[in-house]
Batch of 4 targets.
Target 1
Amino acid sequence: MHVAAPRRRAAAVAAGLGCLVLPLVASGPKAVASPPLAAGTMAAAPYEYLGWGNPQKPTDVMAATGVKWFTLAFILSDGGCNPKWDGSRALTGGSDQSAINAIRGAGGDVVISVGGWSGNKLGEKCSSASALAGAYQKVIDAYHLKALDIDIENTEFSNATVRKRVVDALKIVKTNNPGIVTYVTMGTTPTGPDANGKDLIKKGAAAGLANDGWVVMPFDFGGHSGSMGSATVSALEGLKAAVKSAYGYGDDTAYRHIGVSSMNGKTDEAGETVTTGDFQTILGYAKQHHIARYSFWSVNRDRQCGSGGSGDSCSGVSQAPYAFTKIVVQYTG
């Protein structure tokens, strides 16, 4: 067991980590303009965490893999109901904005992820759904976003009051931003969402939230049978059943409202490894059912470890650079 917060979910809390991004982006942020629609698809938008794990320059990743969309992590509370990168860096005017400008300048675009495992959560710090929606809106307005990911974990996920607050806030966001795509990302068991996850989906349906993708993270299982690819398929089938039941969807519609965010290579659990073969299994499933999203944690880790390499910046398995990204980018919805 890892004593520290899991790598997939850990959010940087030291403000000094923000300096890791500075060499990776152009100097001097430009004003944020409404971007043209990027090539590629937001359905394949792997996570990159620019404040953590010696991140690669996003435009280099784009050139090497053909990926166009990134999910950038994480927006947290600054201690109150106010969003900041890692809870410490301003939304605009800094290195994060410069990185987004560079991605868009190269023909790409971004989904921004709110939450993660560690740090202060907006869902808990904002006292009402309307206040939380206002915090989400600040992020949307800062970057003229087409898509927003709520990565609901840890205490934010386990609290029924907060789960409802998140759902109700997202409904306000969908009303106020016609056409915006929303994802809700959560942990899972090998057979699908746990009781908290099922409750979250039911709350969404009861509130009339037209969420585009209910997304599970099929790793850190605490035990599973078979390959991680087959365990992921099992988890997704359980998710599809939960979404179908809550919303009254038919099978095809239910599949189109689920998604997956895997983890590449060694996970936070000893003996649990997700291989490129597992990613191919997931890709086949995604293509068969036209799921809403195929992502993974993370681009930062999509390279082989060197001597003394850290799991925060490499996969822990033998691989070619960007082997996992190159599989995910084949998914087009």
Target 2
Amino acid sequence: MNVRRRHISTVALTAVAALGFGTLTACSSDSAAAGDTGKFDVVASFYPMAFLAERIGGEHVHVTSLTQPGQEPHDLEISARQTAQLEEADAALYLKGLQPSVDEAIGQSPIATKIDAAELTALEEHGTEAGHGEEHGDGHEEEHGHEDEQAHEDEHGHDHDHEGGDPHIWLDPVKYAEVAEGVGKAFQKADPDHAADYRKNTATLVKDLEALDEKFRTGLANRTTDVFVTSHAAFGYLAERYGLTEEAISGLDPDTEPSGARVKELQKIAKDDGVTTVFYETLVSDKTAKTLAGDTGLKTDVLDPVEGITDHSRGEDYFQVMEANLTALRTALGAR
């Protein structure tokens, strides 16, 4: 059912910016084409967007994810088939600034309802420079944070400067809930026949996210250090929400390589702040993280940015993986 043709005006729809996300089990990438399913067809850019779309849309939506399970979303290049899917869908849900090829394809698509998660909550600037040196007063601020300036292009030649701010908003349950509310409103306007269900599903999801936020607040309340080291700067919002300091080996892009000065700085930070663990993630190489850990005598563990669910993920959906992240952080930060 291409409900697009029965909707209210395009102007009214696009005035509501929203985003969505789909579980791997309910979300489709290769089966029924968008626009030919008898449901409200949503094309989502990657897992966190698809997850929201599935939870809010429930039985009324068919979600197609542009990013395959296990694929690093930053590296996605839109295919001709995916471009065709966009043109046939009722709505596109994405996060502008994370996947340049998706931004371009959706911008050029005639699809009526374009839902941008970045417009549903305030984006902020995060990166390797996240203010850590100022706390120490030991010169870190002079060395710290130039990796992002040097690493706007990855090894594939893609420009990922994230001019709109840090896009990793889904890793903060509070911001994710704000996005969910916007998605719910957009779905209600785009498919008014099922507005009551979308409203109910949104309220349930927001309550679940509020409960997750409380778990993080209480779980991290009594800790011995605030500092954690990650492979790339995906956790700026989470760190800010719970009073932590993220020190990233790379910048906002996982493909960038740290400089020798940055590695030395991280070694000093680890020693000064009682860091016990270097975190890596499941969708990119763990080589640099494990090398740093080996050189400094630290442990390694997974802190998952939840950009996709695979067989290696510590859980089957967003909530399970986030709770596994909380367990890992509690151990690394000495929380009691």
Target 3
Amino acid sequence: MSTSASVKPIAIYHEHPDWFKPLFEELDARGLPYVRLNAAEHTYDLAEDETPYSLFFNRMSPSAYLRGNENGIFYTLGLLAHLERTGTPTVNGHKAFQYETNKALQLSLLQSLGLPYPKARVINHASQAVKAAEGLRFPIVVKANIGGSGAGIIKYDSVEALEQSIANNEIDLGIDHTALVQEFIPARGGYIHRVETLGGKYLYAIKVYTTGESFNLCPADICQTTTGVELVRNACALDAPKNGLKVEGYTPEQEVIDAIEAIMQNSGIDVGGIEYIIDDRDGQIYYYDVNALSNFVADAVNVIGFNPHKKLVDYLEKKAQLVTEEV
């Protein structure tokens, strides 16, 4: 009986309908075999010992619960452990997704690496928020441990406001009933810094100028450059509202690049971004967010001078190594 070789596809596992359009376009342009897996409606066989994929790219979002897809979050941790047991090459695998879905774990990593972060305490009940805030500089934020896209963050200017919020039962600790009580850092210059990495190495960096009214700083949602040039937001829903964010590319100091690469390599995040801020009060740098589900900036060529999705697919293609099977 004759046999022929077929290439195992790259699996792109995701639940957001719009964020990954540029990735799919680049894969299509190269004619690479891939399958799209819906993380919100998925099944796997625990007895399966052979991988059907040349590579499994985890694009599950911790903000899935905002779209009614929270069932995929904890499920994904088990799936990734299963895939790694079967020898399936993964990008942003089990270890990375543990960090993606646990802000307290992110800060614990920063602590272990000796890197500065906004002072924080962890709570598992709203009644503990006032106690946790003792000794912190106000304003503070209460931040859900599993958030994403700025969700689950509330700012308080005083302990009295925090006490009133607790009395009114207004604090939601999120889907794992855990939250951070953390100092709010006023951003010097009115912007935060976001550094993207690929394969645990620096890729590019941007400054995101905020309106001060939202904690959603998704780079794919940014409207325009600092010079007023409108950006094509091809990774977002077509009806997504413009959010007033502005962006510009920049190159961080080597010390910052080294710190961010250390964070990514120690968290197992293959593709991701780190956000940091400079405190307007004293000039101190603080790292405060580790993202394994990192969306590249909108209209990247106009902002940073190249298309990061091309580099991403270069990475995926090399990682997949075009595994073949006989059929």
Target 4
Amino acid sequence: MELPPGWSALLEDYVAHLDAERGLSPHTVRAYRGDLDELARHCGVGPAEVTLPTLRSWLSAMTDAGAASSTVQRRVACVRGFFGWARREGLVAEDPAARLTAPRRRRHLPRVPSRADVDLSLASVSARLSEGDDPLVHRDLALVEVLYSSGLRVSEACSLRLRDVDRERRALTVLGKGGKERTVPLGVPALRALDAWLRRRPEVAGPRSPETVFLGARGGAMDPRVARRVVHAATAGAGRGAETGPHGLRHAMATHLIDGGADLRSVQEMLGHSSVATTQIYTHVTSERLRQAFRQAHPRA
């Protein structure tokens, strides 16, 4: 279905702005473009003719269709960003989204694997090393260790380059969201597993292999979908119903750091959060654990 007149060229310019000037990931840019395409079809008029009531009717239709509050919030942010940009560029006379608001998002506490869960997951991958001589098992162990040790996003782990590993400082240089670079520490077990994989990496690499740390079975850069399957398989092997993905390991790393006394600002920097408010959810996770322990153990709970 074609977009109403005036949208296509404007959206192409906006997508170029998101990519070149804001440095958003291709996945985020595609999601924003899809949201705006949907908005344009709902409105049925050109961008300059969109009004606040039209935008509110779009949100209402979305909510009636059962969209999650997180989805509605993301789309509101997308539309506000688009019309704010169009107004600043002089492409529309008014910004109809300036007063557009979304329902308050209910924040769900993430499911966090315990330390024992993570230990069992790592042990299950290590056990596979004794079953054969497959270099990819070394890769899988290194991947899980690095994700848990440094709290990387799966996309960050897959794009990690060989030169980003600093053995002397036991640190990784990571290119995060928005092209922001940060340095994160690397634990001794993770460095040991990484070194073991890098010794076997030439057996997987080919003449055209990229300089990324983690490779796929055919020598190309490791696909994030493959990395997710590796982590799910590793955590399922724990045998305690603890299966999780890469983001679960990221949650675990942050929660276990705060449990151990790390300050919130340090955890924020390690995770690459732009706002400490995002990191604060892990203090809620820890507080909820304390409340559960109190209710279960205290005679007057």
